[in-house]
Amino acid sequence: MTLRKLxxxxxxxxxxxxxxxxxxxxxxERVDALNLLVGDxxxxxxxxxxxxxxxxxxxxxxxxxxxxxxxxxSGESCDMMPKGAMHLELTLTYDQFRRTYRMSVIDSIYGLxxxxxxxxxxxxxxxxTNIKSDTHFPYENDIMHFRFTFNDDEADKITFSIEQTSxxxxxxxxxxxxxxxxx
Length: 183
Fold this sequence. Notes:
Layout: H1 3-32, E1 39-48, E2 54-67, E3 72-81, E4 88-95, E5 100-107, E6 113-120, E7 126-129, E8 137-139, E9 142-154, E10 157-165, E11 173-182
Antiparallel strand pairs: 1-2, 1-11, 2-3, 3-4, 4-5, 5-6, 6-7, 7-9, 8-9, 9-10, 10-11
């Protein structure tokens, strides 16, 4: 390494270290808000029926863990009843450069990976859609996008509702509601 290259490296190294430390603190701060998801949960799934009522359609357990030194939260459903019902695997993190939360979700029936992006709303609930990523679901000669809303207003209980749209978010319709109770 020439003396000139070494000098340039020494000049920019403090900025790289400061930027990296700041970036890590932002990501950790944002992901810390998701740590309330960490733990073991009983999960009840409710499906919105054509008659406008919620019907309990399955139960499962979910284990959520913090990973990669605290920069992500991930989990997987298990013990689904009835047998053969859809299992989910999800990972949540924060993108400090785009200032958005991101979530990947894979289901056991279709094997599709949806990518959701969003932020906290004015109520402090995380709201994410897959509209920007356009990881839509093909449905009856149309497409469906989804919106997840996480609600943690009750102690030891989290609900996440899933709504659907075929109008790229102009209108939303209820679809699923998951009620997670801490074990």
